[in-house]
Please model this.
Amino acid sequence: MKIAGRIVLVTGASSGIGRDAAIDLARRGATVAICARRRDRLEETLAACRQHAPASRAYPCDVRHREQIRQTVAAARADLGPIDILLNNAGAGAYHLFTQAPEEQFEELMRTNYFSALYFTREVLPSMIERGSGAVVFVSSLAGRIATWRHTAYSASKFAVTGLAEALYYEVKGHGVHVAVIQPGAIRTELFDKGPGFEHLRHVVEPQLVGTEVVTRAVARAIEKERFEVFAPARYALVWKLRALFPRLVMRGTLSFVARKFERRRRPPTPG
Ligand SMILES: NC(=O)c1ccc[n+]([C@@H]2O[C@H](COP(=O)([O-])OP(=O)(O)OC[C@H]3O[C@@H](n4cnc5c(N)ncnc54)[C@H](OP(=O)(O)O)[C@@H]3O)[C@@H](O)[C@H]2O)c1
Model:
C-alpha cells in the first residue's frame, strides 16, 4: 500500500516512536492526524508534520477512555476524511516484580496498551472494509513475543496486542485491509524513564538502546510491502525464531542471564 496521499491516524504521537513515525509518514506524503494527552508536545509534533503535510491535525486524547477514542476518530474523519492507515502506538511501561506490583497497574497497562488499540481499530475498521482498502499497524514489542523478568504486566499487555493483530490479519486480508505488527526491541525514548521499576533494568537495557529510526522504517516497510510482522532492529527476528525452535534452551539461558545480571544468584533452577 502506498503511503503518499493517505490519511494516517497515529496514537501516542507526543514523543518517541509515535512522534517520529508521524513526522516520517508526513515526509512520505501522508496527511497525519495525531493524538496523545500532552497538548504542548503534541503541538510540537504537529508543527514538524505540517512542514511536510500542511493539512495535518492534532487531537488531545486520553486513550484509556473509550468515549475520547470515539470522539478523536470522529473529529479526524470530519476534518480530513476517512482514515486510510491507523498506527496504534500509544503505550506505557511498568517493571515491577509480580508480587510487588500494585494490582491496578495490570489493568492500567491493559487499558493503555491493549484496549486503546482494540477500540481505535474498531472505530476505523468498518469504513476500511467498506472501501476495500486500508492498513492497521500495531506497535507491540519484542516483549509481546518473548517475556522476561519484571515484565509481567507489560508483556501480558503486549502479548494481547500481538494476538489481536495476528487473529485480525486473517479476518480482514480478504477485504483489502492489511494488518501489521511491529516488534521493537530497546528503543531510546521516554518510555523507560516513565516506567516504575525500570531502575532495576537500566544497566542491562541502556547499552542496547537504538534510535527511533529503526522503528519508523519498520512501520513504513510493513505498510508499503504489506509485511505482517517486522522486528526492529531486524536481528530480534532471529531471537524470536530461536525461542520458538528451542524453548527449553533459550529459557534456561534467560534464567541464567537473569540470575547473573539482575538477581546475582549463582545457580538458577531448571525450567519445566
Ligand atoms: N521504547 C522502547 O524500547 C519500546 C520497545 C517496544 C515497544 N515500545 C512501544 O512503543 C510505543 C511508543 O512508546 P515510546 O517508546 O515511543 O515511548 P514514549 O516516548 O513514552 O511514547 C509513548 C506515547 O504514548 C502516549 N500515551 C501514553 N499513555 C497515553 C494515554 N493514556 N493517552 C494518550 N496517549 C498516551 C504518550 O503521550 P502522552 O503521555 O502525551 O499522553 C506518548 O506519546 C509504546 O506502545 C511502547 O510500548 C517501545
Observations:
- The pocket of NAP is lined by residues 12-18, 36-38, 41, 61-64, 89-92, 112-113, 139, 141, 184, 186-187, 189-191, 194 (CB under 6 Å).
- The chain is about 50% helix and 15% strand.
- The mean pLDDT is 96.
- The first helix runs from residue 16 to 27.
